[in-house]
Backbone:
């Protein structure tokens, strides 16, 4: 036994010694490593719907337009110019003559038409963005005309969203994609998209390993200026602490989900930490139509509960003060949000309102919440803080944390009396919030909060105001959204609790890192110093 | 082992009171007493705010406070009020179900035996935690469902054990004598066979207490067991992992689990040495 | 003997069917509709989409029909498509299996080596301080929650030493080695990439040690017991009388003969390691079957849950079979039909 052992020992020592003399071959052009929790639901541009998906899609695909540096206006991308008719029902675009896809083939009007039709017909999560599109015409290879059913002043904004990037239709169709009316069942390309991208953006997908990494490389055929970084890896790192650690040890260049608490523990001079306000927010929501309601969640009860929440405390508690209060489901800074009244903590009023309903002895309410950590806020932990707050007016909150998939099922049926959730914008425009959060017939939250029609929560004013907003622009539009926001506050179904500031944490040898309302992190702007 | 014990303890200590048994028993007893009495003397309430968030261990909070400002020391102590009863319930149920089925299988034999043993085999084909995860995923989170899952995972072991014991004892002379003298089958089973079967069951059950507590904590850690704000140890460690740099949040429950499982392991080890000194 | 082995082998497919049936039944008695994780919350309100998805995933048929469909698919290697990753479960498992195997084997090697060392020391100094210490270490190993141990180790190495290997099997800047076996250690060597090989080893050390310690205890106890058995034999006394050195007796004579019974424990510890791997992989973000299982259970990803349970069950069955056969081969006195205590 002994002789063999020494031989083994010598061998290992030799190996270790030799490897120290080996220079890593990749020293010249190191890939950029981004640490984040992937949570990717799909890489198919018309089925993907997640934050990482936004980053990926905006790097590999391009839309007709994109969000300008001011984060509000749209600027040319694949389309060089566009016009709209008087009442915002027809939009005409001219495509850039030299735009090509990653395989070298030119971007043509037929690709735009095919892409938009597939987006609508495949009935995935982002399909609602094509709502209201009546028909698409392609008078020539480089001109696209889009006809809307009714006026939609937001349409240009929608076109800047990462989910509306143009796909190389020939390549996609060769691999099973279909854009026809029956695309929801006929399309077979989702698996292909997990390994390939077919866009015109600065990067192309190299490999995707679920729960491990997303890797992309520079598009050699990119028709505009090449992006500075040649290869980017998004590494699956689930929690903020590990992300911060990787950043400090040099294994990651950017950590995307560091929360303010963890950020305060980073003390390396090589790391830059920036905190910027974001448009993301966390809200709590009451569903009067949920089956498990032990007490009818009337307006007065909802108001009472809303008064009992310690909003400033929640901001301090969840994000260490790095966040802002938000008045309505429309984020601070979006059209219509100027001058809205912030939510208020008022225990007296809360008790009065409950007493007026005979509930001053208190009651119990079930709260099911997805156990996930978003924007630095752990939803289950947030709920526990709310639980403590509400116990001051004798309301007992029974918390049930569940997996996100379970939450998405239960919120529809049987409904959840009290819950918390998050939202991030898809583009810059307020209509998306009214269409999702407003109590207008068939909006997502109208359906769920009302228990699929069991309780009538519709606010007719919002319906009228939305029509007005969509067909006007400028001041008139802002005014309309302002009034909608006031109505949504009055509804007291959705109560925003915090808009967390985003922590950008990255090594100081890279620059160009910024947060963007549409895409989270525009990759093509990042470079090494 | 018993020879050594007899030599060392010249005072008249009972033979089973070896060091492991005494230490283990002391630990377990201490935890039981804590579990029963802590509401009377705990410094804080386990679910309500006790101070600022993330206060490191100090004079006011021996193990600091967690993300919600709750006292970690209090929560750690309260944790035993959830872990022990669950473990007891799971083991009691598993023993009752398993031993019943095992005794029937061993005694009756034939196709009943085959059927029960096949069920045992299939259940034992799964790694415990995987089966528990699958069952809890089916039933939903909560300590009660996790308990059901663990009972389903644990009963086959006792069935096997009991059956083996029954088979062995059945061959013994006094049993054959009883059968020859015309005793009814149930009388033979209950009066002659069963009383001799218990020692491996007891040893196993004692050791299993620790394993059940570990499994329950693992399930809660994954998110399939206790729901907040229950101060359950696995849950608390999961919270602690979120706030990694605040090491005290996970330290308390971790040490608690370690000590109580060690206690049960010592106890079971010592009991096994006493009851069956030949096994490793 | 042969009869025993033959009987166990014949029983295998039936047990496997039982495993599959149990797994299938379990995931259908759930409290939530799996559909939501496929089509997304917004589309749950759209009846056309719901119907299309139900048809595509076969969720509209009756339970017995679904079972038959599932069995048929299994026989052709189709485990269904994961709701979460949108890829075939079989592919997901195949990709992750080498990761788990590599970790488990490394843990087994580390844990067994330490276990043997501890067992030898314990036997040599029976009932004295080293023996009790070894016994204590062994007990600690089986009393500590492995996920907590992982956290403690991570804490020591990240906060105290400032060195965290980071998640994953290889440094994030390096691409994975070209696929030959799926074992990164082997593949990086075959690729001739020393830097990658070193990175892979560095990434694996902590999780393997944490996982390995869970079996150090049982291995050391087994080695101690069989060593004590052997050391009391006559030929050992003879060797001592002849003047052989203590170390030689210990390692050359005693350990060699004690190894055979220890082999029986290896199969058992393999099963133990599979269990521990589930939690260890989650702590260390090791992209293996264990973390996949946890993600599947949390997200109610039914095809994945069934797939993992079947694979786990199969692995367990095989390792138990190997354990029992080696045990029977080694110790013919063992009652056929009984089994080493769980």
Residues:
């Amino acid at each position: 036994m002994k002789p063999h052992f020494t031989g083994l020992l010598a061998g290992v020592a030799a190996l270790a010694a030799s490897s120290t003399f080996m220079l890593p071959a990749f020293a010249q052009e190191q890939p950029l490593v981004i640490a984040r929790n992937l949570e990717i639901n799909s890489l198919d541009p018309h089925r993907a719907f997640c934050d990482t998906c936004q980053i990926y899609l905006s790097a590999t695909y391009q839309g007709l337009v994109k969000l300008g540096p001011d984060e509000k206006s749209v600027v040319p991308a694949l389309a060089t110019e566009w016009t709209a008719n008087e009442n915002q029902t027809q939009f005409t675009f001219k495509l850039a003559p030299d735009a090509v896809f990653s395989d070298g083939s030119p971007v043509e009007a037929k690709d735009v038409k095919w892409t938009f039709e597939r987006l609508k017909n495949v009935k995935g999560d982002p399909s609602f963005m094509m709502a209201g599109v009546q028909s698409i015409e392609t008078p020539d290879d480089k001109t696209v005309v889009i006809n809307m059913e009714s006026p939609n002043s937001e349409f240009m904004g929608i076109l800047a969203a990462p989910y509306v990037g143009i796909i190389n239709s020939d390549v996609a169709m060769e691999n099973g994609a279909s854009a026809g009316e029956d695309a929801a069942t006929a399309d077979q390309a989702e698996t292909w998209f997990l390994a390939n991208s077919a866009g015109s953006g600065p990067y192309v997908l190299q490999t995707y390993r679920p729960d491990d990494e997303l890797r992309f490389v520079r598009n050699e055929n990119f028709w505009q200026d090449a992006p500075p970084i040649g290869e980017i890896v998004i590494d699956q790192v689930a929690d903020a602490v590990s992300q911060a650690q990787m950043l400090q040890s040099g294994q990651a260049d950017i950590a995307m989900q560091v929360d303010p608490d963890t950020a305060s523990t980073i003390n390396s001079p090589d790391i830059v930490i920036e905190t910027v306000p974001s448009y993301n927010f966390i809200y709590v929501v009451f569903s009067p139509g949920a089956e498990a309601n032990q007490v009818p969640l009337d307006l007065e009860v909802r108001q009472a509960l809303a008064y009992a929440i310690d909003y400033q405390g929640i901001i301090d508690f969840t994000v260490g003060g790095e966040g802002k209060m938000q008045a309505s489901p429309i984020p601070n800074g979006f059209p219509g949000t100027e001058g809205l009244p912030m939510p208020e903590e008022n225990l007296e009023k809360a008790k009065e309102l409950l007493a007026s309903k005979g509930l001053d002895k208190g009651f119990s309410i079930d709260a099911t919440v997805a156990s996930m950590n978003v924007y630095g806020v752990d939803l289950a932990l947030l709920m526990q803080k709310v639980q403590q707050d509400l116990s001051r007016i004798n309301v007992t909150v029974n918390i049930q944390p569940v997996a996100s998939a379970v939450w998405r099922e239960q919120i529809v049926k049987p409904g959840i009396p009290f819950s918390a959730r998050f939202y991030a914008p898809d583009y810059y425009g307020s209509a998306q919030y009214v269409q999702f959060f407003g109590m207008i017939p068939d909006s997502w939250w109208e359906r769920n909060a009302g228990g699929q029609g069991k309780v009538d929560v519709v606010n007719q004013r919002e319906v009228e105001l939305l029509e007005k907003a969509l067909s006007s622009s400028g001041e008139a539009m802002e005014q309309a959204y302002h009034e909608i926001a006031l109505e949504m506050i009055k509804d007291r179904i959705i109560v925003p609790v915090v808009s967390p500031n985003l922590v950008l944490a990255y090594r100081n040898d890279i620059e160009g890192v910024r947060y963007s309302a549409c895409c989270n992190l525009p990759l093509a702007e990042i470079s090494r110093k | 082992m018993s020879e050594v014990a007899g030599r060392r303890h010249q005072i008249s200590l009972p033979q089973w009171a070896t060091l492991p048994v005494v230490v283990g028993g002391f630990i377990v007893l201490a935890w039981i007493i804590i579990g029963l009495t802590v509401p009377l003397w705990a410094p804080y309430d386990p679910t309500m705010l006790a101070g600022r968030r993330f206060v490191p261990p100090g004079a006011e909070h021996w193990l600091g406070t967690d993300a919600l400002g709750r006292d970690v020391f209090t929560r750690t102590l309260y944790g035993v009020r959830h872990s022990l009863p669950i473990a007891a319930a799971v083991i009691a149920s598993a023993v009752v179900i398993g031993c019943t089925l095992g005794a029937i299988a061993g005694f009756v034999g034939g196709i009943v035996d085959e059927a029960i043993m096949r069920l045992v085999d299939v259940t034992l084909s799964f790694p415990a935690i995987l089966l528990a995860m699958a069952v809890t995923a089916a039933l939903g989170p909560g300590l009660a469902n996790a308990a059901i899952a663990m009972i389903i995972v644990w009963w086959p072991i006792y069935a096997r054990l009991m059956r083996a014991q029954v088979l062995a004892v059945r061959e013994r002379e006094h049993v054959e004598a009883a059968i020859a003298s015309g005793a009814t089958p149930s009388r033979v089973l209950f009066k002659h066979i069963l009383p001799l079967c218990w020692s491996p069951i007891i040893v196993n059950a004692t050791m299993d207490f620790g394993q059940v507590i570990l499994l329950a904590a693992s399930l809660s850690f994954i998110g399939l067991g206790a729901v907040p704000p229950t101060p359950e140890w696995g849950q608390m460690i999961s919270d602690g992992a979120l706030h990694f740099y605040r090491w005290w949040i996970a330290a308390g429950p971790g040490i608690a689990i370690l000590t109580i499982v060690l206690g049960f392991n010592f106890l079971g080890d010592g009991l096994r040495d006493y009851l069956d000194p030949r096994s490793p | 003997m042969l009869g025993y082995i033959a009987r166990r082998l014949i029983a295998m497919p039936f047990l496997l069917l039982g495993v599959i049936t149990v797994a299938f039944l379990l995931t259908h008695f759930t409290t939530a509709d799996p559909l939501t994780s496929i089509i997304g919350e917004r589309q749950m309100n759209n009846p056309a989409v719901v119907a299309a998805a139900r048809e595509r995933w076969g969720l509209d048929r009756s339970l017995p029909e679904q079972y038959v469909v599932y069995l048929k698919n299994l026989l052709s290697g189709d485990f269904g498509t994961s709701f979460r990753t949108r890829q075939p479960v079989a592919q997901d498992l195949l990709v992750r299996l080498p990761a788990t195997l590599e970790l488990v084997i490394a843990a087994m090697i580390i844990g067994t080596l330490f276990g043997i060392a501890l067992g030898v020391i314990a036997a040599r100094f029976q009932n004295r301080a080293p023996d009790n210490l070894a016994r204590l270490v062994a007990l600690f190993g089986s009393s500590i929650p492995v996920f907590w141990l992982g956290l403690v180790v991570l804490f020591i190495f990240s906060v105290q030493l400032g060195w965290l290997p980071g998640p994953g099997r290889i440094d994030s800047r390096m691409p994975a080695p070209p696929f030959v076996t799926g074992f990164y250690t082997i593949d990086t060597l075959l690729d001739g990439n020393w830097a990658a090989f070193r990175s892979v080893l560095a990434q694996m050390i902590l999780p393997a040690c944490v996982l390995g310690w869970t079996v150090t205890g049982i291995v050391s106890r087994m080695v101690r017991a069989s060593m004590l058995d052997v050391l009391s034999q006559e030929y050992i006394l003879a060797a001592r009388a002849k003047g052989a050195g203590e170390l030689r007796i210990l390692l050359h004579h005693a350990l060699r003969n004690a190894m055979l019974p220890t082999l029986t424990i290896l199969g058992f510890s393999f099963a133990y390691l599979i269990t521990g791997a589930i939690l260890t992989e989650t702590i260390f973000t090791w992209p293996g079957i264990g973390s996949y299982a946890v993600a599947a259970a949390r997200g109610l990803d039914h095809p994945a849950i069934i797939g993992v349970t079947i694979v786990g069950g199969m692995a367990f069955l095989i390792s138990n079979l190997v354990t029992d056969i080696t045990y029977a081969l080694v110790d013919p006195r063992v009652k056929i039909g009984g089994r080493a205590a769980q």
Summary: The radius of gyration of chain B is 22 Å. The mean pLDDT of chain B is 83. Chain B touches chain C through 53 residues (CB under 8 Å).
